[in-house]
Amino acid sequence: MCVTQQDQIISQQNTSYKQPLSMLEPRNWQGGKMPRIYVAHPYGRRIALEPSELEANAQKAVMIGRQLMMKGWNPMIPNLYHYVHKGWVKSPDEVRWFHMVSEWIQFCDAFFYGGQSDGCDREWAIAQSYGLTIYENIEDVPDA
């Protein structure tokens, strides 16, 4: 077993911690590996939507993520960064945000396309380049 320095630090900080981080994988309710799925959903910052519209889009992505969780998937929901961006006057530009969230695609097992936007379309292309299975309807996503 390879224990990293970060694992050792976390173990020292939390005495109830049983395994090194490098040994943990997401697990579904039945104990099997929980596959990761990237949830691409329009956000709207680039097209200057109102704050209430950005919030609504973030909530729609969360609802998709909840449905995927109920199917046994571990969703990566980049729209949750809305809550980091919200109210931040000197927030990084759109390019920085896109690169920050899209790098997570490589760690996913599948991709969910939640609607057309420039960002979602670019994320789709990244997912295709990694050979991920791409879903557009919740009903098409199999139970994990």
Q: Can you put this structure into words, describing what you see?
A:
This protein is α/β, with parallel strands linked by helices. It has a single domain (36-140), classed as 3-Layer(aba) Sandwich (Rossmann fold), CATH 3.40.50. Helix content is 38%, strand content 10%. It is built from 5 helices and 4 strands; from the N terminus they run H-E-H-E-H-H-E-H-E. Strands 2-1-3-4 form a 4-stranded parallel sheet. Helix 5 links the parallel strand 3 (110-113) and strand 4. The chain is globular, with a radius of gyration of 17 Å. The model is unreliable at 6-23 (pLDDT under 50).
Summed up, what is this model?
The chain is α/β, with parallel strands linked by helices. It is built from five helices and four strands, in the order αβαβααβαβ. Strands 2-1-3-4 form a four-stranded parallel β-sheet.
